[in-house]
Amino acid sequence: MTTKNEPGKTYLMQGNEAIVRGALEGGVHFASSYPGSPSSQVLGMLGHIAEDQGFRAEWSTNETTALQSCMGASFANGRAICIVKQNGLLFHGDTIHCGALGGVKGGLVIVSSDDPDSHSSTNEFDSRHMAVSANIPMLEPASVQETKDMIPYAFELSEELEQMVLVRVTTRICHGRGSVTLGEIPEKRPFTPIGLWDRMVGINWLHGFLLEKLERAREAFEVSPFNHYTGKEDADKLIITGGTGMKYVQEALEEYGADGEVGVLSLGCLWPLPEKLILKHLSKASKVLVVEEVDPFLEEHISAIAGKARLNVEIQGRADLIPPIGELNPEVVFKAVREYLGVEPKCCGEGCPAMEGVNIPARELTFCAGCPHRASFFILKQALRQEGHKGVVMGDIGCYTMAGQRAGQYGYHFMSCMGSGISAAEGLGQLTNYGFDQPVVSLCGDSTFFHSVVPGLINAKMNEANILHIVLDNSATAMTGFQPHPGTGQTAMGFDTEKISITALCESLGCRVWRADPFDVENTKNLICELIGMKGLKVLILEQPCATLAAKTREKKKVWVDTDICRGSNCGCDGYCSRVWGCPGNIWDFEKNCAAIDEVVCVGCGACASICPSGAIKVEGGDA
Amino acid sequence: MMTNVVICGIGGQGNILASGLMGSALVEMGYKVAVGETYGASQRGGSVMSHLRVSDDVERGVLIPHGKADVVVAFEPVEALRILRVYGNPETKVIYDTRPAYPLGVLIGEDEYPSLEDIDAEIKARSSISYPLPATEMAVEAGNAKVANILMMGALAALDEMPLGPDDFFKVLEQNFHGKALELNKDVFMVGYRHIKEGGVK
Q1: Is A514 within 8 Å of A539 (Cβ atoms)?
Q2: CATH for A555-619?
């Protein structure tokens, strides 16, 4: 991402980069985030440029601490930006409501990235409802250029209203690239001292002011440059779009030659809605199609506007022409526009006769080659099997969420939001005092441990939980791209900081703690068997760095199959290494009918050597 | 003019980087470019694709409609077929790396990976022209398997549908790489470029 001050110059930018550039052009003083896809990369990029550009960027322990830090920076009239994904915004709940009541001083912008179709999430929650609930203004860009432009606008608006502003983006913006013409990077504004009687206090007597601010936002939105109308004036057919909907709709209208007869109102200001602007077009239309990401948010609020104005207008969208779940894409929008217009399909794809073809194997997600989680779940499953399959495993959020699939031997029974595994386990484990007789195991990763497991662990300790809690410590927030967390000793701006030890923290609470290496398959399995049989709260930390991270620093050992030893399909193991272990590095040589290592994929961890019953897998320099 | 290119493969092959570099080179030349990246939790073995849409007048949405790809560039044979079936049409051109990456189901023995002959035959039947290319092997030979993505961009640039030449791409490479890495990337780009210009192995 360019930090050059060259207004008017055009670059290809990813949406996430555009957020960074927008923050820079908005004169940001403070940025904070907890990583969550699709906006994980934003703070990393801000961290890289922060020192040079004279602002502070930090990875926060979780989304709530991130927003609260931003509120602190805003108190001194600093401009602050908080970047989260939809779950992070929901985690903000209390903070955002209380914060909105108290208002802000310096501009405070929250960017929340939604993930329609849950490409890298467990859900497709819609952030927009939060703005309504907390009574704060909300914007949503329709392009990468608008994403960049909206951030400085949001800072200005936030200061004008003394209120935080939510900018909602979606995966196709964050992970899309488009041309962005740069604006100017301003000088950093000095801070304002906090006076004796300055206050930022969220208290109910401000409720009326909160609503007043919202009405002022509405007035600003009536004339905002982020709402566009194109097509025929006074159109009888009107399509209203939010976010990514606009470009799909434009392409669909051109496809069906209807771009002249239909009006398109693209709304960038989503809450409070610019009612006068909407009514101006709505009152001329008899048939409206609303195209938006995930929930029928605009559709329902616009229906309410039409109802209050007693308009006789048909409003369609997620309720009928567009499926109620999933993201927008050309297929969904083309079909909806076609049905809305009442025209026949034209494009290839849908409706074309299918050609016979070969069977294509599905490509399901799996742990990376050399991933320690593969070993951990392999061991856990074996340990539980020895216990007669009685153990209940409570999972959590991280790469290891994939363990619910084949990649992790269908390794857990429960999974919900971040930090929930240990507390759900605590509740379940308490029932062992009342006749429930299954051992309870909970899991979390190291980043999740710091994010929201610590209060659950304290709760488990205080209430004398009967569980085994396993921390899958791979020294990384691996799922989102290796962002620093309190245990890594690094910060977003590249400075070192003292590592917080998970072991020491657990021990300080009085927990009994064990540590083991998941690549030491036999010993770790025996330890887990022993711990499962033990009463009370046990914490086991399985330590082995993320393979992708380790591959960057560790010298790669050569791993190979000794074909004189591997007995191939004549061995009773039935291809144990590739069939059960399931690492992408362990392949089967169908010509020689024996196991093989894919040298391009293998990262040289050597863990598979210990699971081959014949000892045919060899690691350079002996054991791994 | 409007060219739609799908660049596909699996996580970790450098697909996103390659499409970003190609897009940047085209923006430098003044084209309107939109790129859509579908990856999700892709570092972990899933299918990945980028949609690259190049136009001289209008910036499109980031996703190519089904059946509208002019070119499919695939870093893996089965992925070429998977994408071609959905985004291709009889006029689509295909460039694909012939090196298979086996999905988990195949490794476990529950699924079967089709033969390369069958894959090739179906790709031929579904496209106007196809270029099977041992890109990973060629990249290993040149010095590093990881630069296969840039080799494939060289191959893509050699098609008439792409309005750029090696020098246009090198400008962007020079902004992103230095020293040995830059030289290696330039070299393999030319390996791919020449391979197609000289007719490839069709």
Answers
A1: yes
A2: 3.30.70.20
